[in-house]
Structure formats: C-alpha cells, structure tokens
Write a structure and sequence with these properties.
Two copies of one chain form a homodimer.
Chain A: H1 2-10, H2 17-37, H3 43-54, E1 58-59, H4 60-67, H5 71-83, E2 87-91, E3 99-103, H6 105-114, H7 117-125, H8 129-150
Antiparallel strand pairs in A: 1-3, 2-3
Helix pairs in contact in A: 2-7
The structure holds a DNA duplex (30 and 30 nucleotides).
Amino acid sequence: MAKKSMAEAQLMLGNQLCFAIYSTAHAFNRVYKPLLDRLGLTYPQYLVMLVLWERDGIAVKEIGERLFLDSGTLTPLLKRLEAAHLIRRTRSSEDERQVLIALSAQGHALKEKARKVPAAILSASGCSIGELSSLRKNLVTLRDQLNAAVGE
Amino acid sequence: MAKKSMAEAQLMLGNQLCFAIYSTAHAFNRVYKPLLDRLGLTYPQYLVMLVLWERDGIAVKEIGERLFLDSGTLTPLLKRLEAAHLIRRTRSSEDERQVLIALSAQGHALKEKARKVPAAILSASGCSIGELSSLRKNLVTLRDQLNAAVGE
DNA sequence: CGCAATTGTATTGCGCGCAATCTAATTGAC
DNA sequence: GTCAATTAGATTGCGCGCAATACAATTGCG
C-alpha cells in the first residue's frame, strides 16, 4: 500500500523534474522574447548567432553538434538568417557536402546590440551568480547523462 | 582586463544556464520518446494526461494554468487526444464558454501502462532521488521568479 | 580502380508553442 | 434591463524540433 502510493506520487506532475525543466525553459523563452524581438531574432536563432560570434566560417554540422540540433531544424533556420542578411551560406570547396556559415557585416554588427541581453536575463532570474552556476553545472551533468542513456 | 573578461564571463552565465535548460529539456524529450511511443503519446500529451489522472472533468483553462500553456496549443492537442479516444470534450452546461475534459475508459486505463515510465526516466538520469528533488526545487523557484519578472 | 558504405545537407510531414485575432457567453456598471 | 467589458475557446500563421527519407559527395575496402 505504501508502495502503491509511492508509484502514484511519481506520476504526479508537481513531483516531476522533467516538467520543472520544461516549464522553466518556456519561462526563459518568455523573458528572452521581448529582448530578442529588438534584435529580430528568435531564441534558437540567437543560439546560432552566439556560436557564430565565437567563431564563424564553420559547417552546419558543427553548429548542430554544439546546439544538439539536426539539419531538419538548422537548414530552414539558417535560410531565414540568410534572408535577414545576417549570414552567408557557401558550399565548401574542399568538401562539397559541407555548407559553411559565415557572418555578414550586419551579423557581426548585431553582436554589439546583443551585449546587453545577458545582464537583463541575469536580473530577471533574481538569483545570485553562485546559485545559477551550480544549477547550470548540475543540469549539464544531467543532460550529458541523459544523452548517454539514449545512445545506450 | 582580467576584471572585464570576468564580468563578461559572468554576464554570459544567464545565457549558459538558459542553454543548459534548453538542451536538457531536449535530452529529456529524447529519453521519453521511446517510452511514450508505446503509450501513443507525445510528451505534451503525457503532461495533459498526468493532470487528468490526478483529477479530470476540469476545464481547458485549468489544464492551461497548470502546464503554462494556452488554448492555441491545447485546443488541437486535446482534439488529437479525443480522436485517440482517450478523453471526451463537452461544453459545460453551467458556463457554455467552458469545455470540460473527461477521461474515457481507455484514458483511465492508460494510467496503468504509464506507471513504469517514471522509474525508467529515473534510471536514465543516473541521479539519486535526492539530487533530482533538489534540482527540481531550484528550477521551480527560478521558473516562478522568471514568470514574475515577465508579468512585471 | 570499382563499388559499397558513410557522411553532410536538404526535404517532407507532423506536433507543438505562442502571438494575434475572432466568436460566443458571461459579468458588471449604470 | 442594457450595453460595454471581460472571459473561455477556437483559429490562423509562423518557427522550431525531429523522424524519415532522399541525394550527392566522399571514404574505404577489396
């Protein structure tokens, strides 16, 4: 009987870590949206730009590995960034299968406008650097463990 | 110079935390998918069923409040659950604006098959109950803070 | 070299997630 | 009671996110 109610408790929404993550991700999105609207970016597009601001001229594959996204997501997203004149997509001459992504002048320039985003997010979170940092570490560990479990 | 790059690194933390959450949510989804496929549910549909297994006969509005989802997401999702014969949607006679969601016999029965899901997730996470529970608590605090910040 | 297997990207289809808009039902101020 | 404001859902449109599939370029094995 005690056992059964434990199984029951595990099915309760409030007890589920996954729902906490799911709903926190949505909450973050809502905080980011007004900030990113000013940059003309969606959140996944912002992630791609963050990768490119660190280093551009990389293949779609590498962006996908860093963000855990595949070509089904990235190909149309990158086409939209190209249509917005933030990036250029060119086939690699060394390996014609690869499409290399380079920032345009506008894409580089957008980095300056994006500088104030992290501070705004930090303040909306209402947490200390230490809290956020330990939370991040635990999540990355969990994520890597989950991804390893999927790969068997 | 060291100070400036440290401040910059700290500012990036909000971004990094958000990406940690974003990518962990996707990792969870990948772990859940094969388990939920056997139930014929997607993850958001599973969340709706969790709410209904706790208490059904509730309005769409209440489901939306518990899951932080709006009618644009729920209406088509609930129609798919109805098409799968897991729920029934009926207008409230007291307030004709409301649509009440009730589990069908199949919907109730599915709860039994869903009981083994949480244990499978727990094992894939590779964490102890205590770790997951404290992580969950921190995330809920952060989520509520973020949602409050959006509401100003 | 020749050909099968692999790799990188593109395409299609489906299910969210949400903003914006719409409609019908209810409430509230007077 | 009347009419404006509010509320609950539904609809539309767009951008992911991913599985499945397709295809061309490259690699590797004989």
